[in-house]
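note to self — DONT lose this again. spent like an hour looking for the file last time. sequence + predicted structure for the chain T wanted, 92 res
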Amino acid sequence: MPPLNSDLEKIMTFDTELQTYQKSLSTWLAEEGKQGKFVVILGEEVLGFYDTRNEALTEGYKKYGLEKSFFVQQIKPVQTVAFMTRFTPQGA
């Protein structure tokens, strides 16, 4: 697999979105009704909080389309990391 250029690598790693999430996590956990919700983040912008991952993805695609990669994470004290992409290998 060829190496990724730095711009693409930054987009795929969600550095800014992770920092935004981590910076806000303790506040969100303290706010009633936010724990367990799914947050949508692009850069430092928080689009909103949703009851399901599917709802979060739907709203993210409505707002950002397929051209931008956005971050979806469930708000909880202990995080599980999963990487999902809409890209498939050629020939798949």
